[in-house]
Fold this sequence. Notes:
Layout: E1 8-13, E2 24-29, E3 37-47, H1 49-57, E4 74-81, E5 93-96, E6 110-114, E7 118-120, H2 127-132, H3 134-147, E8 155-158, H4 164-175, E9 179-183, H5 189-195, E10 199-201, H6 208-211, E11 215-220, H7 225-231, E12 234-242, H8 252-257, E13 261-264, H9 271-282, E14 290-295, H10 299-307, E15 314-318
Parallel strand pairs: 8-9, 8-11, 9-10, 11-12, 12-13, 14-15
Antiparallel strand pairs: 1-2, 3-4, 3-6, 3-15, 4-5, 5-7
Amino acid sequence: xxxxxxxxxxxxxxxxxxxxxxxxxxxxxxxxxxxxxxxxxxxxxxxxxxxxxxxxxxxxxxxxxxxxxxxxxxxxxxxxxxxxxxxxxxxxxxxxxxxxxxxxxxxxxxxxxxxxxxxxxxxxxxxxxxxxxxxxxxxxxxxxxxxxxxxxxxxxxxxxxxxxxxxxxxxxxxxxxxxxxxxxxxxxxxxxxxxxxxxxxxxxxxxxxxxxxxxxxxxxxxxxxxxxxxxxxxxxxxxxxxxxxxxxxxxxxxxxxxxxxxxxxxxxxxxxxxxxxxxxxxxxxxxxxxxxxxxxxxxxxxxxxxxxxxxxxxxxxxxxxxx
Length: 323
């Protein structure tokens, strides 16, 4: 490992479940990259709903219990490489969503993770926007492109279209040539038109299930009653993509009986998908919207804002690396 890498770093840790106040900055060892891994000096870390949900229940879905460090989205500079790595060298600018759904511990000054869970940061993109990209954009890409195979001329309905995943989904669907309809509060309609949305429904004033018809693909980030109501908007052969884990109310059987498809999509690390996303950014077809930026010490405040459910775009922890 390079001598410029310090032995210790700052990281946000929690030793119990609870509210944002349980997030504390601690001093801990810098991780050592193993075979096929890189050590990334973190410049910014994205904040996602999975982060505050994990914080509140004090347990990762993988079974890990406190103490742990949250965070999946990383943008930074390669500080060192482990044995066998050929994709990157120290000094390369990278972004990624390593290890998901296992903890990447991105709320820290350094992260060690598999090299192929990263990709080169798009040219001209700063680290704040780089950290806003991976989890949300890959979720939209894997759902719309890999799972639903959205084609030109299809009609795509995106729920919570101004949110972290939603605002990427609108743009990715447009890049696929789709006609895009989004649900959002009226105050966010101008923003979404700027991203390319063709139609918008203010869900506070109108039931989308009555306003929208003949949809090929629905991307749902809400769940609950939205699942069944979304099915009613689909044309024969249409697909409902849920980003929330299915429970007893998930209408998979009802969808099959009606000649439709209802599937749960869980994002996974994806070097190739990240490169596709980077190409969209570099071509100007994918814009990154950052709602707010917080220093590492204010991770709790970032969670408070995220849990309000009123943000447009992504929340990011910036200037994480100080060494």
